[in-house]
Amino acid sequence: MDRRLLLPVALSALLAAGCGGGGTSGPGAGTADIDSGATVGADAGEAGAEQSCENPVDGWAVTFPGDWYTNTTEVLDACSVFDPQPITLPEASEIPADLAIVIRREERPFADATSEDPAEERVSSEEATVAGRPALRVEVRATGQGLLDAGTVTYRYYVDGGDGSTIVAQTHDVEGTDFERNRRVLDDMMESLELF
Predict the structure, then answer these.
(1) Could you give the CA distance from residue 24 to residue 146 in angstroms, rounded to a whole number?
(2) Burial letters for 70-91: b for 16+ Cβ neighbours within 10 Å, e otherwise?
(3) Where are the chain's structural domains?
(4) What does pTM read for this prediction?
(5) Quick one: residue 5, left, alpha or beta (phi over 0 = left, psi -120 to 50 = alpha)?
(6) Within a 10 A sphere around the Cβ of 47, how many other Cβ atoms?
(7) Regarding the domain delimited by 3-195, which CATH topology (the fold level of the hierarchy) does it fall under?
(8) Average confidence (pLDDT) per 10 residues, the chain, 196 residues
């Protein structure tokens, strides 16, 4: 295929998958507050321009770094996984822990989703507001009783979906990832999160 056709074809595929501007009209459009004592998203503009995507099945839109990738609808609903490298998701398997950021909707109430889990030790916990909804930002360390190796640190947001569900967005500190960068990017993504 002629290389001059690759960009238009790639852009068409992204737009068909619900990415690249769906629901927002530029970086930061519709940004929601994250209310807490901490600085959220400090220094996370390092990637430059932003892009946005929408997950119409689970009901969110979010911005992410312009030089990152998100998934299409082939294995998971669009706009669920984000990484600075192209994403290939295995079918009928767990989502790899080395992907930079994963967002999902859990069909369980916020209070249940945010309760302590024996597979992890809570290191820190902070109440917040994301997309105008109650949220909890936590850092946890795996105990080895779950899927992650003992000692693996996860930085996670729980956002009350308002309908008995909970939005969970997280990044793991595993080999081959830039955990601190991914934390900053996740903070910025949660500032931009829109629920519908």
Answers:
(1) 37
(2) bbbeebbbbbbbbbbeebeeee
(3) 3-195
(4) 0.76
(5) alpha
(6) 17
(7) Protein Transport Mog1p; Chain A (3.40.1000)
(8) 32 35 29 30 52 97 98 91 93 89 97 96 98 98 95 98 97 97 98 97
